Fold:
Amino acid sequence: METGRPRNIDSPEMMWKLFRDYVVDLKSKESEWLKVQYVGKEGVRETDELKLPLTLEGFKRYCWDIKVGCIEQYFKNIDDKYSEFLPICSRVKNSIRENQITGGLLNVFNPSITQRLNDLSDKKEIDVKGSLNVPNLPDIGNRK
Structure:
């Protein structure tokens, strides 16, 4: 029997429910983030709600805000005490990644930042071969 502090989250199912609640909470905050544009020759001010990306940091913050507390240990499986949470933590991370990549592909989110956050940047190696061709210098006297 394990002793110590009780877990913040009792089951993988509860973790998934918390994540789904985070998604709903994030959607409700979209009206707080507005894109302002001035349209037409009259410069009419228009606003559009921005779609907010899912992030693991946002999910962790959400859990703090609703008094669940720190959930880092579930994702890191500290001391192998959270092994049963690994599949659901993987699902959470994959859901976040899919949201960010799809948003980047559709230009809803900045594609460049999306690439960097998800290690999708195109890496190219450039191999430069050749030699330095120095023309014969005129004799300018005794070179020592």
